Every structure is written in C-alpha cells, then in structure tokens.
Amino acid sequence: MRAMVITDLPDGVSRQRLSMQERPQPEPSGPFDVVVRVAAAGVCRSDLHILMGEMPVSVPHVLGHENSGRVHAVGSMVSAVGVGEPVLCYPFVSDGLSPAERRGVDSAAPGRRTPGIDCDGGYAEYLLVSERSLIPLPVDADLAAMATLSDAGLAAYRGCRKAAASLGPGSLAVVMGVGGLGHLAVQILRSMSAARVVAVDTRIEARDLALACGAHEACTPEELGATAGSQADAVIDFVGTDESASTALASLGFGGSYIAVGVGGSLTAPILQLVANETRIEGVYVGTFPELVELTQLALRGDVRPVVVPYPLNDADRALTDLAEGSIVGRAVLVP
User: Which residues of the chain fall below pLDDT 70?
Assistant: First the structure.
C-alpha cells in the first residue's frame, strides 16, 4: 500500500514535507472493522495546521480525515456493508457507548478516533475504520464529490442548521469566506431557508463561485456594510480571523447569530453590545452522523453540488501548497 506520510514536522517553515512510502495493506483487526479502498480524500486546512506543528501528532503520520471509497475487506461481525460497496466515511470512529454518542453527538465522544488527526487517515490507498462510521452510497455516486461532505460539507451543514433558527422569509444570511466550506454553505442555506444569502470573499473568483452556487449577492468585506448594513439575521464565518469576526458582529441586526466555523483569530466585543442586540454567538465543531446522512441525501438529489479540484495522491504537496496560497476555488481532493 502506498501512502503520503508525514516523516517530519516543519519548524517555522511554510513548505510541507511529505514522502510516498510503501505500507502493509491493513486488515480488519476487530469484528466490526472495515478496510476501505480510498477513492478520494479531501484536502483541509486542518492538514495545514498539522504540518505547521499547530496541531500535535506523532510521526510518521498519514493525513486525511475526509474520505470516501469502496469496501475492501470486512470483519466477521460486519453486516451493514459488503465488499465492493461505495461508502462515505464519517470522520469519527467510536463504539457508540458514551453518553455523548447516545445523544447523537459522536464529535464529543471521549474515546473517539479521528483518522488523519490522531490515527492514520486517507492520504493512502486503504483506510481502516469501523462499520458504525460508514454511510452506504449508490453505485453511481461521485465519490470525489461525496468525500468533501464528510468534514467540509458537514461543518457547513451544521453551521447552516444553527443559522436557520434565526432565518425566516425576508431574513438575511451572510456567508463569510467562499472556499471549500463556504460554497457548500451557500447551497445548503438556499435549500433549507427562504433567506436572502450574501456571500463575502476578498477573491473575485470566489465571489463568482458564490453567485454560481446560488448566492443572491456577493461582495468584499469592505462592501458588506453597504450591502447588509447592520441587518443580518445570521453570519456564518468560515474565515475565523479577528477581522472577519469584527466585520460579522458589525453586520448583525437585533437577535442575530454569529456562527464561527473557521479558526485562527479571536473575538472581542463589548458585553453591552451583545446584551443590547441580544446577539447569539455559537461555534461549530464538524457535525453529527445524522447530519451527515441528511447532507448526503441533499447531495444525492442534486440540491448540493460540491465543486471539486482533483489532484493525484502523489501531488499532495502541490495540493496543500495551493490551499495555503488560496489558489483553490472549491474543495481539493486527492485521488489515489
């Protein structure tokens, strides 16, 4: 098995260093384990955070927490999927027994594993997961597009569901950052609400993508004040900088919601402002398994269409560099 393996973590440098290595093909090690032959693995900013040493991992390490593929081998007790079936991989692997999981919040399970984060992921030909973490797909599903749903799409979907609590006919929703997540959020908001959707990005190509995805308007951060004023009912921030948070709060109307998905900056606001405007502030950490099932159905019926930029697995360095430089419009995926 060939895999893109981190052999060293950079120290204060911007260039990623990955190496292609041969690894033994995994076998199911437990009765509910499944080996997936990877069809596509999404390229995420979390991978950049790992490569820059901002998220600690042990090395050697295989990235890739956004995966789809076909079942290659199964453990003795697996009954939900069979060899050869296409599947989408929920990004958390757990046994379902913790109180958080019983409530449906697998992302908060204390003993969960996250392939690509705290164990080897999908920048490889094969991936070891559990039966509980798989969503069966139709045989004709676009697996490269579906892979983007398992983290980028899922976080966008959860953010949009939170925003929907503030949205009704005539409402205004703002999507900040039209990248791998934001372009999906525009489509999800259009599918689940009657709100007017304004997309915000510094890049003209990203604004064009937002309009193609169904945004009613697209503007730069500097233009948002003239476009939305202080009347937004919800802002979903996929940028996560000091500047984006400040701009978002300034655009909210009374009772509006600021929903943070992107990370990197900090949020500062006078408490009086929050109280006087009854502002709601929420964060989004990926999403739940049922939410991923719901999103998968939206994609399968064509309501959400991920824009995919494919790279061969051995071009992982180039894909990560392009992501870091902001030159990808849509979501990059690695294809073994």
Answer: 10-17
| Residues composing the chain | 336
pLDDT of residue 14: 41
What structural domains and CATH numbers belong to the chain? 2-148+306-335 (3.90.180.10), 152-283 (3.40.50.720)
Give the model's pLDDT for residue 16.
54
Residue with tokens 């405007």: 277
Q: Let me know: does 207 contact 201? Beta carbons within 8 Å.
A: yes
Q: Which long-range contacts (CB under 8 A, 24 or more apart) does 224-233 make?
A: 224/174, 224/198, 224/200, 224/251, 225/250, 225/251, 227/198, 228/172, 228/174, 228/198, 231/172, 232/172, 232/173, 232/174, 232/198, 232/256, 233/166, 233/167, 233/171, 233/172, 233/173, 233/195, 233/257
How far, rounded to the nearest angstrom, does the alpha carbon of residue 97 sit from its chain's CA centroid? 25
pLDDT tens, position by position, 69-84: 999 999 999 999 999 9
List the beta bridge partners of residue 310.
333
What pLDDT does residue 58 have? 86
Partners of residue 175 on adjacent β-strands? 199, 236
Q: What is the pLDDT of residues 200-240, one digit of tens each?
A: 999 999 999 999 999 999 999 999 988 777 799 999 999 99
Cβ neighbour number for residue 161 with a 10 Å cutoff: 18
Task: Report the distance separating Cα 306 and Cα 237, nearest Å.
Answer: 19
Residue by residue, DSSP assigns 107-161 as GG-TT-B-BTTTB--SSBSEEEEEGGGEEE--TT--HHHHHTIIIIIHHHHHHHH
